[in-house]
Amino acid sequence: MQWTDQAVVLGIKRLGEASVVAEVMSRAHGRHLGIVRGGRSRAMQPVLQPGNLVELTWRARLDEHLGEFRIEPIRLRAAKLMEAATSVYGVQALAVLLRLLPERDPHPHLFEALDVILDHMEDPAEAGELFIRFEIAVLNDLGFGLDLSQCAATGGNDDLAYVSPKTGRAVSRSAGEPYADKLFALPPFLTRTGGGADFSALAEAFRMTGYFLHRHVYEPRGLEASAARDGFVQAALKRLKTGETALPERPASALSSSAQKDGLADARLRQPPLLRETATSRSSEPADAATAASCPPDPRMSHSPAASDGAGLDINDPEPR
Predict the structure, then answer these.
(1) Which residues contact 117 (CB under 8 A, 6 or more apart)?
(2) More confidently predicted of 243 and 252
(3) What angle do CA 316, 317, 319 make, to 5 degrees?
(4) Residue 45, number of CB atoms within 10 A of its CB
(5) How many domains does the chain have?
(6) Is 45 in the same domain as 152?
(7) 198 in helix, strand or coil?
(8) Domain-located, residue 310
(9) Cα separations (Å) of 302 from 96, 117, 207, 232, 299?
(10) Given a cut of 90, is residue 308 above it in pLDDT?
(11) In this structure, are residues 60 and 42 in contact, taking their beta carbons and an 8 Å threshold?
(12) For 15-48, how does the pLDDT look when each residue is reduced to its tens digit (9 = 90+)?
């Protein structure tokens, strides 16, 4: 068995004296593990840093075997990702989200989205917005997509201002105002009209996606929420609060100038789920805003700065478990 594909490195784990087990997110083969012979050498260590884009060839006798990787670098951006707390925590938090998906299950749109986000970690507003869209896309692929395209009560798609914590569907301002204290505010950048990803909008968006991840994924699986996500949220919001400028208001489908300069326009115009204005609804049944249940307390993330992903592979663990 053999295939060649592009991939983003998510982490590594030591195997013996000279080799490592590398975890990658590949374009056509999903999240995949493989042994890299000589992975601890001086030549390979810089290549196998989380966030780097590589070309790899996987070989194994049978498809169910772990197999081996032959890796060649394409874009080494790990050094740039180490320059700010948002990118250090962000690359770990993105890896944790991808580990919620089945191994070797293809998600090409998530690969493309991951590649875009890692190239735009330097701006806290843009990184925060893209991270929120990535979380919504992961929820959608897990079967718990949010329907932000139309009002759950009226069926209209104008003036959407709230999200029901019970159904995960959008609610218009007029229908939701009597129950505003029981609903999430819908961040403007997730609506059709678009808007700037400022401090308050991102804070509300992080609260909303954190709630749905806890309710539908972490709690049923008995998992703890990622400390890396908490670190990313705090770092992004801190930079915005201390004077970083928010993204200019723009339609939700518009491309940033930096994305165009980097040649990433095609990837965003293809609109993978995280870059769509809304995710696919997980339910087609109508739900009235008046029946939206009171929002339970927000799941609070641990403040530990540990680099462990909390869901399997620990890139700092020197020995295999």
Answers:
(1) 90, 94, 127, 130, 131, 134
(2) 243
(3) 145
(4) 12
(5) 2
(6) no
(7) coil
(8) no
(9) 14, 24, 14, 12, 10
(10) no
(11) no
(12) 999 999 999 999 999 999 999 999 999 999 999 9
